[in-house]
Structure formats: structure tokens, C-alpha cells
Amino acid sequence: MDGPEQPMEPSQNYFDRLADLDARLGRVRGDHALALERAAGILAGRTSCRIAEAHAYLRGLAADQGRDVSELAAEVVAALEGHSDEGPERLRATVASALRPLRQAPQTGDWARIAQQVLDGVAGNHTVLMPVRAEDGSVEDYLFMAAGPELVDISGRRGSEIVGLRLSEVYPTLVGGPVWDAWERCLADGMPRQVGPIPYVSVAARAPAEMTISVQIRPVGPGVINSWVRHDVQSQLEGRAAQTERLGNLGWGEWDLVTGEVDWSPGLYRVYERDPASGPLPRDVLDTLTVEEDMPLRAQAAEDFSRGKTIDLTYRVRIGGRVKHLRMVADAVRDAEGRPAKIFGVIQDVTARETTRAKLSKVEQELREHQRNLEAEHRLAVTLQQIVLPIPTEPIDLPRLRVAVRYLPAVQAERVGGDWYHAAQAGDGSVVLAIGDVAGHGVRAAACMAQLRHALAALAVTTTSEPAELLGHLNRLLYMGGTGTSTATAVVARYLPETGELRWAQAGHPPPLHSRGGHTIELDRPDGSVLGAVPAAAYGTAAVTIAPGDLLLLYTDGMVERRDKTLREGLAPVIETLDRTFTRRSRHPVADVIAQLPDANPEDDTCVLAARRLPLSPEGAHG
Length: 623
Description:
This is SpoIIE family protein phosphatase. The chain is α+β, with helices and mostly antiparallel strands. Helices cover 39% and strands 26% of the residues.
């Protein structure tokens, strides 16, 4: 930094160009048109305004006087060239005063109020100053229009104490100095500036001292905003302490029990929402702020303090119509007899922490209650499922068919589902096989599962064994349950023991797998929508012949669905297991298939039904 005042942005220096302009235009001074250009250039250079503004000013001035603008310009050039050092400064002030109406500054009252509102939300040492001008337009002083609430100068004055005062009253050593000059230049050209580091001497009787400061100046409205930083060590410590108070939402206090003096930090005023100009709250008033239910805590803390203990207490107070949680840590300087002479205390506003803690406690209680409800629902669902859906431990023999069932419950206890199966002889002598899955989990899914399974068993014995008709009945039954009733998927098959024909239908469910001689395929699905979705769903039927030794596998989607795999990838190990079982010529293929199937989805229940057509010969009847 070459000097104490440096422009923060480059600006055109018209004074440096003036000599060159004089040399080029010296020969044509009598030309009135060029005189106007020359006059505008000189005015722009000496007042640091734009040439267009100088042009407008000269034309307006000529119009007001009823004169030719070129003639007026010639007089201005002659007048300016006839003065030396004093002339440019006086002319600068005169023209700046004349050009001020062109800049349309806002009303001072509104502007000052807005400026104060802005500074109220900004940390640091900031002031807004308005120039006080003499009759000739020159700046003779500055008036403090707004100040940051955290400003405390070296004399101990706060921002609210200097608003409305003149600079010469508050900081007389700044008058005419580098900061003063930077303000004036900032007002003239609208360019921000930085001054310093420079020494500042305070001559105030209350706190005479010297320190080093840096100042940043920016134009704002009709005035300037002035931001300054102290570079001395004490200021840095004070700044760090103030920042700590703001970040921690705390403040400190000191109570001298001998003299009765009380001192609060700015942070403590913020905690108690009190104007620093009003001073600390009296002790009896502080006691009345405590919430009545917490008075015993304060009393116990006072008793412990009298015994020489350090206080660390969290209690509630009512401030500004709201309840705050305050944490107080206090200790004392004691006399020879152990009596406190001076109390030091730090008080922190921990309302946010305590409010969050209370909310978390409530949420934890609700979660515990919810968990208890889930556990009760799970026990009920498991009981209902075990009653309605007993799982045989050994294969079931039906006419010319051997059936094995496996049920794999979800790992997560609360996810008891609605998977079900059916394997029984119908009223016409055929065998009805079915498997299904109710959407959802818990008691509701288990209850819906029971409804479907019992309905299918009753319909197959009393009404029909046709798979499409059975699904139609189940669909209407589920749909008529009303709004909120679960939907479900299912496969229903009708097996004829004499011919081995299998007719089957599906309602949004994975198709069965058919294994023959070590080769497994997925049967082509006929049309059919999920149960309970529409009132009059139509279901198609497909047919396949089951030869002796063939194996049919019905399963719910938990067998093949995985978060990290496609359905095709999930089905592959199931098919591989079926093929391997037949290749090894297992003596008990149905039981072996059920036992060797890969682990199902841990997040969902899975039900699997394997059926094998038995050969006619007794030797091949094992399965």
C-alpha cells in the first residue's frame, strides 16, 4: 500500500489528462463549440463526475439563465483557468452541490431507518454517515445516521449512543485526516475505498488511547457505510469473545457483592432480550423470571453455592412471553471466612437443545409404544397363520399325486405375510392345487389369507373345480370387502388323476414351473388380473399334461424377488435346483426339491408347493 488511502477499484483520473487536453485545445479557445467540450471535460475532471453529467449541468445552467450554452462554457473555461489551487476545490464543491439533485437521493428519514434495520442484522463495527454540507456545498461535517448494535468503540460508547451525533463531536481527530478524505472522494465518484492500517488517537476524556485501525468505505444512498477493524491484541481478544458468545448463544456476568456493582457482557443482554442501555436486571427481578416449578432447583443450587460448591444448573425462565431453558455455571471469589465476595457466572440459552431433547424423548416413547403394538400384532398374526395354515412336515399323498409344502417366514418379525396354499381333492374327484399371496403384512394380511383359503376350499367341494371360475369367485369376494380391502395374487390348478391333464389359471401371480427329465420350463401364463382390483375380472385357462415322474412347482414371489437381482436372475437358482434333483435320480424328488430350494427373500414370507405325478407301478411309487 503506497499510502493510507487506496481506491478499491480503478477509476479514470481526469486531472492527469487535463494537461494533455490543454495542449490539444489551446489553439482553438475562441471556438465556442469546442469551448463546451473543454468546459465539460474540465468540470468532469475536477469534480470526478461523468462528462455526460457535466454536459447536462452546463446545458441546464445555461437554460436557467437564458444564455447560449457555448458562451457560458467559454466563461467557465476562462474562470477555471484563472484560478490555481483554491479554485478547483471550490468549483468541485459548487458543481457537486449543483449536480446533487440529478442523483435523486432518497428521503433521509426513510433511508436512515432502512440503513439501521440492515445494520441490526450484521455483525461487526459498522456505521452509516450522512455528509453535512455548508452553503457552498462543501462537506463541513458528518452525521451518524445508523450504527451496528454490536459496535463498542475504544471509549466504551455503543452504537446507539453515537447515532444522531456529529463526527466532530465523537471522533474529532478524524476531521481532515485520511479517512475524512476517503469519505469525501467516495461521495464524489461513488467508488469504494480502503484506508489503513493507520494510527488512530482517541482524545476522549473517558478513555484516551491510541490504536491501529483499517477502514472500509462504500457509498450507500446519499451517504457512506463505514466499517472498521481494530488491529490491537485487546480488540482481537474482545472480538473472539464476542464471536464465542454469539456462536454459543451465551453471555457472562459479574456481581460484586461488596460494592453492589453488576457487569453484563453483550451476550447476556441478548440472552435476557434486554436493551444494554437499561443496564443489568436487578437480582430480585431475575428471581421472578424463573418458572415456578423450577424454583426448588434454584433453591437447592443456592444452598450448594453457600457451601462452596460450583453451580451447574439448567432451569426455565419466562422472557418476552416465551419459556427459555438456561444453563448457569457460576463460581465465586470468597473471603477468608469462605463467604462469597464476587460471583462470576456464565449463562447459556439451551432452549433449542432442551426442546430437541424433549421432542426426541417423546418420539422414543412413541416408538416404544409402536414397537409394543407391532409385537402384539405379530404374535396375533403368527397365531392366526398357524391356525389357518398348518404346514405339513411330510409329503401329502393325493390321487396319483404326491405334494410337499414348504413355508419360509420373513427374517423381520413384523413382516408376517399373507402367503397361503391349498392341496385337496375336490367334490368331482379331481385335485385342486393353489397358492396365493395377499398384499401387505401383519394381522390384516393374515386375516385376508384365511378368508381366501377357506373360501377356495369350500367352493372346490360344493360349487366348481374349474380354476377360472374359482378365481372369479375369489375376486368378487375380495372386491366386495369394501374400500381399503387388500388385493392378492394366486394360481389355481385342477389336476385329473386318470389322464394327468392339468388346467390352470392365474391372477397376477408367477406361473408354475414344470420339470420333466431334468429340464425345467416356466409355463406360459393365461390372462388374469390380481384379485380384488376390479369387480368383474375375466380369467383365462391354460392346459398341460403331467406325465408320470413330472414335477410341478408353485411358489409365491418371495422365492425369486431380490433387491439386487432381476426376476430372471432370482428364478435361475430355483430352476437349477429342480434340474439337479432329477439328474441325480433322487429317490424322494418332492421332498428333496423342497429341502434343497435356495433361501428365500428375508424381507418377505415365501410359500412353495411341489407336486409330482406318481407312476402306476408300486416300484415307482416312492416320491
